Amino acid sequence: MLKEERFDYILKKLQADHKVLHTELSNDLQVSEDTVRRDLEALAQNGLLIKVRGGAIPHSPNPFAFNERINIHEDDKKAIAAKALSFLHNGQTIIIDGGTSTYALVKLFPPSLQLTVVTPSIPIAMQLMEHPGVDVVLTGGRIFKSSQVTSGMDTIRMLEKLRADICFMGVCSLHTEVGVTGPHMEEAAVKNVMVQSANRIIALATSDKMGTAEPYKVCDITELDTIITDEAGLELAVPYRQLGIKVI
Amino acid sequence: MLKEERFDYILKKLQADHKVLHTELSNDLQVSEDTVRRDLEALAQNGLLIKVRGGAIPHSPNPFAFNERINIHEDDKKAIAAKALSFLHNGQTIIIDGGTSTYALVKLFPPSLQLTVVTPSIPIAMQLMEHPGVDVVLTGGRIFKSSQVTSGMDTIRMLEKLRADICFMGVCSLHTEVGVTGPHMEEAAVKNVMVQSANRIIALATSDKMGTAEPYKVCDITELDTIITDEAGLELAVPYRQLGIKVI
DNA sequence: CATAATATTGCAGGAAATTGCAAGAACATG
DNA sequence: CATGTTCTTGCAATTTCCTGCAATATTATG
């Protein structure tokens, strides 16, 4: 067994279980615990995980919000992402906004998919770099460390020149009257341009986002084409449907 | 059996199994392990696979696409990076090119450093996101999956509008007459704009890069202000010094 | 066609990396 | 603070890698 295969196995297991143990890995890989220890050491050296007593845990590239949020509502987000997949077809150009729901979506991309993705999100770009069929375009600009997206005038300028088939937007807050809103001015401005630059806007929102509002406006609620949520059958969805928005 | 047939077989097997072993190939192809080793060496040279101890693995799908290169000449690169640190001062705006030498540099940034970094490199941006004092600006554009940098017109446009104090460039090839050159047209064009946009160009180059050339020109050798290398005392450095370039 | 130049291949040796083991230090936990 | 676990360090056995070299095959050239 090649050392790289062990690395691969360790990283896969880590992603699945959110932790790995020396004892387990030693068993799974049929090598001594010392070798496992040295493997983890090497992976930690390259910043791919964090060693802890007894094993290792995933590396949060930074202790900020994005990585904290990845795991909350993980199953809901996966369910939402799975529904979103059906909108994708080869040859499309799509905008994918930052956020944990949209990140869950690109993680589910089947390897056969062929499209161009424009995104301001660094985690999404990294994820898609490993995908053989997707061309990735990263919008430029200053990086917001908390959400790991680029923002600012440069981002807006790049998006303005674009015409995309679909925009998948990760929304912070949805409200029938206030519309789509967000907590940061710059990010809201960027999202607004995304809405202008795509033929069809699909919002990904866990149900706890619905009926809430934040200071900065992204767009009117009627500009949304579809809302994908985990609980489409709920009472909550009714007012959106009355406005002509598909809720699934 | 023709060498090309062996190449063909190796690549096919690699695609099927996601790895190849010296021992297996030696058996399958009925040649010595040394010949297999040399074949893998040749294929690795052309970027068709990654040599590892015991055999080889494919290039893209494994998670070490960037890290696979980070370990070669690791100590040399660290030494180079350490020398480069002395050029940094709080308040500067600097451009940092992609590449493993420049990546080693940002890894050494002391936490007290306060500056703005503009870079097309995603690994560098990720690394610096953890840094409390550095503002990171990522240039936009299509992502080159092999080198994990953005490139193209958008990248160039963002750099053009910039005026930086220093540009740290990771060079592929340095030659006293041909100048700085690189293997890809687009990347060379981006590097060229970097050179135009910074007051001072500092090239990071392990000594094996010196005296070599590639198809696409980045800039004249005289546009460099300083070359940082691992073996500044060598004979190699003399002709550059005669051109007025500092070599350290 | 003959001969020289070049490339390819296998082999031998020493260098380097990987692995598992053992002994003692550091650590967590009750 | 006593105990069992985990970590580090050094070491030796094994495997794999690299270098130079000689034998053979291939190609170029007069």
UniProtKB/TrEMBL annotation, chains A, B:
Any one GO molecular-function label of the UniProt entry: DNA binding
Official protein name in the record: DeoR family transcriptional regulator
Entry superkingdom: Bacteria
Record key words, sorted: DNA-binding, Repressor, Transcription, Transcription regulation
Organism: Chitinophaga tropicalis
Gene3D superfamilies according to UniProt: 3.40.50.1360, Winged helix-like DNA-binding domain superfamily/Winged helix DNA-binding domain
One protein family per Pfam: HTH_DeoR
Parts of the chain that traverse the membrane: none
Domain HTH deoR-type per the UniProt entry, residue ranges: 3-58
Keyword check for Kinase: no
PROSITE patterns: HTH_DEOR_1, HTH_DEOR_2
